[in-house]
């Protein structure tokens, strides 16, 4: 059974083009969503994943209608593959029921993994270069060393309430205690 999925990003957009293409591709059921692809909770897609069975084919008009990123698209396609469900994209002529379609899918997966590795490598190189220049990553400290010394002196005076010290220093109790350790 061919099952279609169509998605538009806003309520103002029209699903007609996708629905017509999915019907022409032989889809018996068509599920739709009217929301951004960046949303993780898409009711139409969730309904398909609950309905679709081994041997069925999920059909979309274009790849970007299904996945919000290449990584997400590959995750969805892996779920379908584990269930024995095929995938077809009309515009990209991708059909995982064919050997060529499977090859293209695996090439996409390899490219996505390569992209993640390159990004990771670039990030680590950037952090190493910053450290070599004496820069530290992370959030800046709320209190300077001078302010920490002053806070410790104030905390040593039992007549000054902790709440007053926090208010004076402009920090929470947790920050004050952590800094004074």
Total strand segments? 5
Shape: elongated
The biggest beta sheet is recorded as:
5 strands, mixed
Distance between the termini: 66 Å
Secondary-structure-derived class: alpha/beta
Mean pLDDT: 87
Give the helices and strands as they follow along the chain.
Answer: EHEHEHEEHHHH
How large a portion of the residues is in β-strands, by DSSP E? 5-15%
User: What is the helix fraction of residues, given as a range?
Assistant: 40-55%
Strand order of the largest sheet: 2-1-3-4-5
In short, what is this structure?
The protein is α/β, with parallel strands linked by helices and 181 residues long. It contains seven helices and five strands. The mean pLDDT is 87.
How does this model look, in words?
By secondary structure, the protein is of the alpha/beta class. The protein has seven helices and five strands. It has a five-stranded mixed sheet, with helices on both faces. Strand 4 and strand 5 form a beta hairpin. The chain starts with a strand and ends with a helix.
Structural topology:
Blueprint: E1 2-8, H1 16-24, E2 29-34, H2 43-51, E3 57-60, H3 70-82, E4 86-89, E5 94-95, H4 99-132, H5 145-156, H6 162-169, H7 173-180
Parallel strand pairs: 1-2, 1-3, 3-4
Antiparallel strand pairs: 4-5
State the main characteristics.
181 residues; alpha/beta; 5 strands; 7 helices; elongated
């Amino acid at each position: 059974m061919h099952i279609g999925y169509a998605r538009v990003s806003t309520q103002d957009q029209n699903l007609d083009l996708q629905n017509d293409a999915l019907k022409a591709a032989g889809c018996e059921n068509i599920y739709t969503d009217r929301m951004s692809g960046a949303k993780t909770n898409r009711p139409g897609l969730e309904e398909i994943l609950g309905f679709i069975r081994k041997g069925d084919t999920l059909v979309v008009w274009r790849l970007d209608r299904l996945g919000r990123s290449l990584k997400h698209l590959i995750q969805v396609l892996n779920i379908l593959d584990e269930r024995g469900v095929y995938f077809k994209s009309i515009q990209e002529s991708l059909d995982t029921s064919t050997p060529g379609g499977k090859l293209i899918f695996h090439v996409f997966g390899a490219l996505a993994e390569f992209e993640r590795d390159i990004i990771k490598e670039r990030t680590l190189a950037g952090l190493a270069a910053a450290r070599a220049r004496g820069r530290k990553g992370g959030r800046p400290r709320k209190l300077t060393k001078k302010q920490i010394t002053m806070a410790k002196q104030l905390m040593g005076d039992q007549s000054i309430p902790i709440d007053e010290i926090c208010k004076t220093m402009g920090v929470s109790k947790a920050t004050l205690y952590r800094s004074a350790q």
